[in-house]
Design goal:
Elements lengths: L18 E2 L8 H5 L4 E3 L5 E3 L6 H13 L5 E2 L13 E4 L2 E3 L13 E4 L5 E4 L6 H10 L4 E3 L9 H8 L2 E5 L11 E3 L5 E4 L2 E5 L8 E5 L2 E5 L3 E3 L4 E3 L9 H9 L8 E4 L5 E2 L2 H16 L17 H23 L2
Parallel strand pairs: 8-9, 9-10, 10-11, 15-18
Antiparallel strand pairs: 1-4, 2-3, 5-6, 6-7, 7-8, 12-13, 13-14, 14-15, 16-17, 18-19
The structure holds fe (ii) ion.
The site of fe (ii) ion has 4 residues, from loops.
Length: 329
């Protein structure tokens, strides 16, 4: 594997310590991996606020380096990458894969081997041999699940490599033309044995959560705030409709889960009862929020005209479908 410490364009940077480059795109993947050591600087980009001190912290910053989609986390020059940085085993048969793809704005991808014997990739990492080898060791991939249109990454390439079925919701399907299976409507289904599909539109109108073995994969619709230790979702990162997103998240109250896996932001394992208590607190707070369709993405880029058009045509149709489905339950 290439050593990310050996990047030649960083000759003016102090390479005797862990450091960052200005190429950071503020996806926060790195500081999810190494909280307390990596944080936002004055311009919002990742900086080291302190160096790793223990072997565990050293592994955390290596995970940050390999997760960072822009290669903005630099190890001290010459420090070799240890083995087994990724995949990171979060719980038995559950892994965070790292190698976050720049095309997903640095979303975290995951792997689960289900109790029904299926190997499942959730959302798309970069295509790297290290993960191909890992999937080979696991016996391949059966399914690749996409939580929504933003987190596609190299999912199709992995699906093709392993002959896996590739799933996305119909309302986000344009993001994955290679998808072999299209999830339709907003009812809760179990199209794969042991995998429940819970549509949670709002962040995008094709957002879904996948529940397997009490592990819940929620894409960008909900996450654990690592510093504040609570569940939250940011209205400024709700692209399509906030009313839908808030109502969608209430659906999660009907399910038992002890791990919440987020595309962006923190993931968390908690006893199922505590998880529901955290969710209830989050939902109460969300009820107090207001939202207007965005004029700009969080990085300052104006919303393009085609997205505004999409909001006027596709989103109202989806919203009517969703609330009709909700009225039936
Ligand atoms: Fe997203």
């Amino acid at each position: 594997m290439a050593n990310v410490a050996d990047r030649s364009e960083t000759s003016t940077i102090d390479r005797t310590v862990w450091t960052t480059t200005p190429t950071c795109r503020i996806c926060r993947a790195a500081w999810n991996m190494a909280p307390g050591m990596i944080a936002a600087g004055k311009d919002g980009k990742a900086i080291f606020v302190r160096q790793p001190e223990t072997p565990d912290e050293m592994m955390q910053v290596w995970r940050a380096a390999l997760a960072c989609p822009t290669g903005s986390i630099l190890a001290p020059r010459g420090l070799p990458v240890p083995d087994h940085v990724f995949p990171e085993e979060l719980a038995p048969n559950l892994y965070r894969l790292g190698y976050n793809d720049n095309a997903t704005a640095g979303a975290h991808p995951f792997f689960i081997r289900t109790s029904t014997g299926l190997n499942v990739l959730v959302d798309g990492p970069r295509y790297v041999e290290k993960l191909v080898e890992f999937f080979e060791q696991q016996g391949g991939l059966d399914h690749v699940l996409l939580t929504h249109r933003d987190d596609v990454g190299a999912s199709a390439k992995y699906a093709k490599r392993f002959g896996a079925r590739l799933w996305i919701h119909e309302n986000d399907r344009e993001a994955s033309p290679e998808a072999t299976d299209i999830l339709t409507g907003y009812d809760i289904t179990e199209p794969i044995p042991g995998v429940t599909v819970i549509p949670i539109p709002g962040h995008t109108i094709g957002s879904v959560a996948f529940l397997a073995d009490e592990r819940l994969f929620v894409g960008d619709s909900l996450n654990w705030l690592i510093d504040e230790k609570r569940l939250w979702t940011n209205p400024l990162r709700c692209w399509d409709d906030w009313d839908m997103q808030r109502r969608s998240l209430k659906r999660l109250q009907d399910f038992r889960f002890d791990y919440l896996l987020a595309g962006h932001g923190g993931s968390i394992g908690l006893p199922a009862e505590r998880m529901q208590a955290e969710l209830a607190t989050c939902l109460d707070a969300l009820d107090e929020t207001t939202w207007q369709p965005l004029t700009h993405f969080p990085n300052g880029v104006p919303i393009p005209d085609e997205m505004k058009q999409f909001w006027q045509t596709e989103v109202p149709r989806a919203k009517a479908d969703f609330f009709a489905a909700m009225s039936r339950t």
